[in-house]
Design goal:
alpha+beta; six-stranded antiparallel β-sheet
């Protein structure tokens, strides 16, 4: 697997996922407790034009959270950094991780899956922490 088309095909075949555009896949990860969480996987490029993949997992609508608290909480996460992402008419806070896609060739799909699951789980936990804080 050395390009985004191959990764996209893998996601669409092996996960609950849908293609949102030629460069964007929306995946829903279901957790053992019955909850689920949305993560977007997209084609990206670095400053030299090399192909990368970006993993963006939704945390919360940007207007409904304390951003300083979000940054502090995200700082303790192993994987990913905070970013914003427009989805429909709204702007969302997401936990983002990116990696070179050329590294995903052959049997190295776990090099993608480990950060994918890590970012998705961390974003879900961060969303829960922020929503419980915001509801006080």
């Amino acid at each position: 697997m050395a390009n985004f088309e191959d990764l996209k095909s893998y996601l669409l075949s092996n996960m609950e996922a849908e293609e949102r555009s030629p460069r964007l896949v929306r995946a829903t990860l279901k957790f053992p407790d019955g909850s689920s969480h949305v993560t977007f996987v997209s084609s990206a490029e670095d400053e030299q034009g090399n192909p990368w993949v970006s993993i963006d997992s939704i945390v919360t609508p940007i207007g409904s959270t304390d951003l300083i608290r979000a940054v502090r909480l995200a700082g303790g996460r192993l994987c990913g950094g905070l970013a914003t992402m427009p989805i429909g008419d709204d702007e969302y806070l997401v936990l983002r991780h990116a990696m070179p896609i050329a590294e995903l060739n052959g049997q190295r799909i776990n090099d993608f899956l480990v950060p994918f699951y890590s970012v998705t789980g961390a974003a879900s936990g961060l969303a829960q922490e922020l929503s419980s804080f915001n509801s006080l």
